[in-house]
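ugh ok fine here u go
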Amino acid sequence: MALEFETRFDPAYGEAVEIAPDIQRLTVNNPSAFTFHGTNSYIVGTSSLAIIDPGPEDEAHFQALLKAIGGRPVSHIFVSHTHKDHSPLAARLSRETGALVCAEGPHRAARPLRIGETNPLDASADMDFRPDIALADDELVEGDGWALRAIHTPGHAANHAVFALEGTGVLFSADHVMAWATSIVAPPDGAMSDYMASLDRLLERDDTVFLPGHGSRVRMPQRFMRGLKAHRKMRERAVLDRIERGDRTIAEMVQAIYRDTDPRLHGAAALSVLAHLEDLVARGAVTTENDPSIDAIYFPG
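structure:
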C-alpha cells in the first residue's frame, strides 16, 4: 500500500488555531528537516485545560501558550517523549500554572549502550526531564470536561506515548505517526521492533483522526498505518537486497537506498538502517561479527 503524505500545512506561528471542538493547536517556530514547519503543542479543554507537548525552551512560544491559556487553570501537562523539541518547556509551564507534568518517564535508551558506543542523539535528548506522574500503559487521566488515555508506543523513542481523548476518536500521535513523513527510528533511543509492535497496537484501536507532533492531522489513520508498515517492510527488503548485492556497510546501503533523499537526512537514514539491521540480526536474517553498529560489517544470514 503506497503512502500518501500530506505536506500542506499553515503553522500560524504565535496563534492558537482551533482544529476540533475544545482542541487548539499552537506551532513552535522551529522548522527544520526533522521538525517540518515546527513542533505542535495542543490545548485541550475549555474551563480547565490540559497541554500536550509544550515544546522547546522558546520564549515566543511560551508567551503564545500563556496568551492562549488566557488565565484559565491548567491541571495537567502531557509530554509524549523527551526529545528537545517536545519536552523542555514543560518545567517552566508547570511552575507558571501549577500543572502536574505527566509522561511515561524520564529519557532512556531502548537498549544499553555497547562497548565503545557513543549516543549521537544525546544532544537532542532532554536528560533533565522528570514527570510528576509516570503514566502506566492504558492509564486514564481525567480533567474538567476531558479525559486522556496514555498508550505506550515505544519505537521513535523508548519512552514515547500517545494520548487518546476519550469519547472523541481523536488521538494525539506525537512523533509515532505523522502525515508529512515517516517517523525516524534511531538507535539506541529507538528500536524498529518496538516501533512495528506499537503500530500494531494502534491498529487494534478505532481512532478516527490523529493529531501529530508535526504537520497536519492524519486522516484515515488505520489506512495510513498500514501504509507505514508496508513502507518499513519495503525498507527492510531494500536493506536485505543491498546486503545480497554485496554491500557490507551502512554507508554503502544509505547511498543506494536513500539516493533521492535530502542529504541533510542521511545521518538519520543511517540510524534508521541500523534500526532495521538490529532487528534483522536479532531474527537471524543478517549476521555481523560483533553487535550491530554504524561501523559494523554485515553479511547475509
